[in-house]
UniProtKB/TrEMBL annotation:
InterPro entries linked: BBE, FAD-bd_PCMH, FAD-bd_PCMH-like_sf, FAD-bd_PCMH_sub1, FAD-bd_PCMH_sub2, Oxid_FAD_bind_N
Protein name as catalogued: FAD-binding PCMH-type domain-containing protein
GO molecular function, one term: oxidoreductase activity
Keyword Flavoprotein: yes
GO terms (BP aspect): cannabinoid biosynthetic process
Keywords carried by this UniProt record: Disulfide bond, FAD, Flavoprotein, Glycoprotein, Signal
């Protein structure tokens, strides 16, 4: 089977914060209408909108973040065209609001739709067109599409081409590809991100540009001894381990041929396999949730002797706030962010911080584990 390269349409919103107006909510809406007077009303949902609650909860895949005490966005914007994203970026900067980007809603820590400071959500639920070009062996995929929709679009056109993305069909392409994106074709063709040729972005100034313009993870580099596996098995039978999922995904092949510095994803040569730890529960209540969270932290601690070290590496798409976070308010230093940054990106973290300093020096686009500015 041949590999299909991918051109990926993605909206990246970065910028800086101005002083808040006396009425952030109303002035933000006025700003949106000023920049898109003819079309923005059809894609803006406030807390008074009848569809607000259903839209907010529609894509929340992790019910830890669906309770009433979780912070809610002032506004949800569901863009149909780039100008809607551009207006949201510009107006969020102007009125001191943070932005959360949602595409699919798979988020172990809820970062794509929760914030501890006033925020808006850009939800790409309507931005999911896919165009497959068999002659060029490429595809354009809009940021709101899911992995399953991409696979289906390819399969309806050809039985000889494929794309090396993930195994869960409901995961959004935006989050998966930006974090790497591994799947069954990994050893032959590498990550999804290794096969992205181009992207359309919206920058801090609202310009439309192209290339020319609760889970945890580990990486294993040495075989786990039999005694270690026996202890792991005993943990699974503890009370909090009910609903556990531990996925071991082999690396090697093409992954070992691509340099660590090729893209931000650095986990390449020497990795035997990646481990995903997850625990699921259906019972409600904070006590139940804390019991399961305590258990998975215990499992993560148990595995420490058997996995990568200095740093103990982690996969960005299995976001884990336990390994470190930025300050919610105020400045976060490079040294502080390095605690979690080197686990995800290894030595690429320094390069990412320098890029961040050039394109977003005042750190408008930020969240609990966003790349810090060196300014």
């Amino acid at each position: 089977m041949k590999n299909l390269s991918l051109k990926f349409i993605v909206a990246i919103t970065i910028g800086f914060v101005f002083s808040c107006a006396s009425d952030i909510h109303e002035n933000f809406l006025k700003c949106l209408h000023f920049h898109n007077s003819t079309s923005i009303s059809n894609v803006v949902y406030t807390k008074s909108s009848s569809a607000y609650d259903s839209l907010l909860h529609f894509s929340i895949q992790n019910l830890r973040f669906s309770s009433n005490n979780i912070p809610k966005p002032l506004v949800i914007v569901t863009p149909l065209q780039p100008c809607h994203v551009q207006a949201t970026v510009i107006c969020s900067q102007r009125h001191g609001l943070q932005i959360r980007i949602r595409s699919g809603g798979h988020d172990f820590e809820g970062i794509s739709y929760v914030s501890q400071v006033p925020f808006v959500i850009i939800d790409f639920i309507n931005y999911r067109n896919i165009q497959v070009d068999l002659q060029d062996r490429t595809a354009w995929v809009q940021v709101g599409a899911t992995v399953g929709e991409l696979y289906y679009s390819i399969a309806t056109k050809t039985s000889t081409l494929a794309f090396p993305a993930g195994v869960c069909p409901t995961v959004g392409v935006a989050g998966q590809f930006s974090g790497g994106g591994y799947g069954y074709l990994l050893r032959k063709y590498g990550l999804a991100a290794d096969n992205i040729m181009d992207a359309h972005i919206i920058d801090v100034k609202g310009r439309f540009l192209d290339r020319e313009a609760m889970a945890k993870s580990d990486y294993v580099k040495h075989p786990i001894p039999e005694s270690g596996l026996e202890g792991l098995w005993r943990l699974f039978y503890e009370d909090g381990g009910k609903g556990v999922l531990m996925v071991i995904f082999p690396f090697g092949g093409r992954m070992g041929e691509i340099p660590e510095s090729e893209i931000p994803f650095p986990h390449r040569a020497g990795v035997l396999y990646q481990i995903q730890y997850a625990v699921h529960w259906e019972e409600k209540g904070d006590e139940v949730a804390q019991r399961h969270i305590h258990w998975i932290r215990k499992l993560y601690s148990y595995m420490e002797p058997f996995v990568s070290k200095s740093p103990r590496e982690a996969y960005l798409n299995y976001r884990d706030l336990d390994i470190g976070v930025n300050n919610i308010h105020g400045y976060t230093s490079y040294e502080q962010a390095s605690i979690w940054g080197f686990k995800y990106f290894k030595n690429n973290f320094n390069r990412l911080a320098h890029v961040k300093s050039k394109v977003d020096p005042l750190n408008f686009f930020r969240y609990e584990q966003s790349i810090p500015s060196l300014m």
